[in-house]
Amino acid sequence: MSVQAYGAAGVPEIDSAPTQEVVWHHRHLLDVDALTWPEIELIMRTTDEMKGILARPIRKVPALNGRRVTTLFYEASTRTRVSFETAARNLSADVVSISTATSSVTKGESLVDTIRTLEALGAEILVMRHSVSGAPYLAAEVFGGHVLNGGDGWHAHPTQALLDLYTMRQHLPGGDLRGRKVAIVGDILHSRVARSNIWSLTAAGADLWLCGPATLLRGMDRWATAWGDGAIPGHGRFHVTSDVEVAVRDADVVMALRIQRERMQGGLLPSLREYAARFGLNAERVSLAKPEAIVMHPGPMNEGVEIAPDVAVSGRAVITEQVANGVAVRMALLYLLAGAHETGRPHDAHSGEAIR
Ligand code: NCD
Fold first, then answer.
1. In principle, which of 95, 164, 247, 323 could form an S-S bond with 183, CB 3.0–4.6 Å?
2. Domain encompassing residue 164
3. 186 CB near ligand 1 (under 6 Å)
């Protein structure tokens, strides 16, 4: 399929016969756990199309012409927000960007009031980041359009997990993660990136290892054990370890996560220096992984803490590819969500079993 034309009603149109049978039914994207595997594959294929658009001299198509995308970020962000806004503009949507520092939120307006106001002002697709886990779920209850979660608290960051998956598939033979060892090292406790990645990577069949100091892995061992016991049928299990060498050895993918100082209560880490010495991804540790292994980081990086500066710019690092793929994945999601709306059947029924 190719995303080029748009129909009389402004409906995104595919100008050759679609080959896949999966139909996108989701009105919102709040986390990856509500998706089925065929839906995740549909997102990956649609992202391929969007990459094609991004490779053209003029990176703009009219697919979302006249559609209104609003970004509402209650937390600091550079790449996620710019990535969503670039994605929306590449599809010719009108973009309104709201920073809570300059909005009426500072005058005490509630989240629900803010969302109702934005809807009355014409917002159709709301991209939202919030420091409270679950806030986008509340937004989805009151907002008449589509809600896309750009990260909520420690809970979920679905577009990051999808761009991570896309980037891994680009580098693995046949794009197949089954049996591939993926090590995620860092501040797992506070990481919505890790939580969303657990769903998508185990659904992809990866051999997933989460690694960090015990204080930053709290609760994960119980989750891993429950899955190992078959609590979630069909899910690959994942492992939890505080031994970075065990996590990284023979890995196909090594992902560092930021130490989230802004969410850290006292006592979880003795010091950043100690963390860097015991867990930081340096060249020696990365050399334990497979020779062709890739190194990832969702950003923003604390170089010299969770990742050594030379590792971050090494030939194995695909960190800027992640950023570039993020635009294509978000274009795909905006496109799919907008299409669901136009069919007049926006609902949250699944075509099959959700990966959760
Ligand atoms: C992450 C986030 O905000 O959750 N960053 C991102 O979206 N690229 C990770 C982080 O803040 O460390």
1. 247
2. 158-317
3. no
Is the CB of residue 186 less than 8 Å from the CB of residue 279? Answer: yes
Within this chain, do residues 13 and 146 fall inside the same structural domain, yes or no?
Answer: yes
Cα(208)–Cα(185) distance, integer angstroms? 11
> What is the distance in A from the centroid of ligand 1 to the CA of 18?
34
| For residue 200, pLDDT beyond 70 | yes
CB 54 within 8 A of CB 71: no
The response to whether residue 188 sits with its C-beta less than 6 Å from ligand 1 reads no
* Cβ burial, residue 92 (10 Å; 0-12/13-18/19+): middle
Average pLDDT score over the chain = 89
The DSSP secondary-structure symbol of 299 reads: S
Cα 152 to ligand 1 centre (Å): 10
Same domain for 139 and 104, yes or no, is yes
Q: What is the pTM of this model?
A: 0.91
Determine the 3-state secondary structure of 315 from DSSP: coil
Tens digits of per-residue pLDDT, 243-254? 999 999 999 999
Kindly state if the Cβ of 196 falls inside 6 Å of ligand 1: no
CA-79 nearest atom, ligand 1: 8
